[in-house]
Amino acid sequence: MKKILLILIISILGNTLFSQNRGFTPIKLPGTSNENLYEYSYALIIGESNYSNGWPSLKGVKTDISEITRILNIHGFYVSVEENLKSGELERVVKNFVAEHGQNQNSRLVIYFAGHGHTITNPTSKKEMGYLVPIDAPHPSTDKTGFLSKALSMERFKEYAYSAVSKHMLFLFDACFAGIIFNSRSDGVPPAISNSTSFPVRQFITSGSAGETVPDESLFRKLVVRALETNEADGDKDGYLSASELGYFLQNKVSNYSNGAQNPRYGKIRDADLDRGDFVFELPKEGFILADNPDKETNFAGNYGTFTDERDGRKYKWARIGEQIWMAENLAYNGGEGGMIYENDESYVTKYGRLYNWQQAIEACPAGWHLPKDDEWEQMINYIGDMKTAGKILKAETGWKWHGANGTNKYGYNGLPGGNFENGNYYYIGEGAYWWSFSEYNSNNAYLRDVGSNRDNILRYYYSKNAGLNVRCLKN
Fold it and tell me: Is residue 449's pLDDT more than 90?
């Protein structure tokens, strides 16, 4: 058994129309003058599992991360994952994410934390305070001072809630935790969503109360996923799930399935200006396929999603750019002879993928995908802008060295600087992205696309086929 705390912060603006060509399927609300709600959707998922110092390790966090990532991908979020952060890293990652993405009124954000949580009662005020536990925090039963110096107080999340410009925010804690910063509710189905989406709100849901114990295999997480995959939690069956409906559903289901051992709570922040609205998910329509199966074309009907490379079971994000569907991550398939690892450091593979020589690259993509030809690269670049601006548009919003080097990631391509390999040496990790084209210049050279930290353009030139570059596959 464990006490595990997940944070899901979802920030949404509900009043600004956005273009249909931004790489996302818009969510529409009936009965409102401004039907299209979201322009961008980003998620930060933090998983803390490798604990010591008095805390048991949490093997179930891996599954939590995988499942929440999957369902958020389906709902249109581009997800970044951080694991096993120490105290300073935990606070920095959360703070930077809110600072960077919470200031865009046209975005919705998710911050999800999976790990230990703890509640301490102040002996003077008798008030309870919840904390997120980084992997290096000592247990308070043996070192309370050390714990308080490293743990992240929930009061900090109250600060983040106020600092963000995004209109709606939902905090979801899978932990037994006291609701000190929000007013708990237990009422029924809320009013129609069109009556509340125009107002700002900061909402909270916890999986239990202080002193209760949450199992490592999270019932709460399973029901969150179920609520977002079906219409079971949609009280008025209008096709949209509000945070209030989600809280009501979890409060009843978790308590029932746990025989009263775990009792979720939900509510809104104690602020008269931030407790009138409600956050909304659009639920899948009847017949919508949620499985990640690349052989079913219906899975690629939207503008984003994930698929599984059946050769090794690795999941990849994809994004629709114009009439094309591109992988939104660098290929990482090994396949025995395929691909080099930057400086032979396996930790690079998850973020940057593998490097391939040209002959490996033309054979590396999974079934139903291929290495893009030169004219296919040009089609994409012309759709998003031109050669002078495409680099900035294709770059990810984080991950690039040097001040101002990050991009807009406008269409979800999520370009990252994986560097290259040439003449026995590795170069430019964090500074340059180099992707092969199928098109040859001659028998010794082939074309590539090059995006750099110090510029906004994208370059096209030929390069030795023996060099190691990244691969982005294009759907057939």
Answer: yes
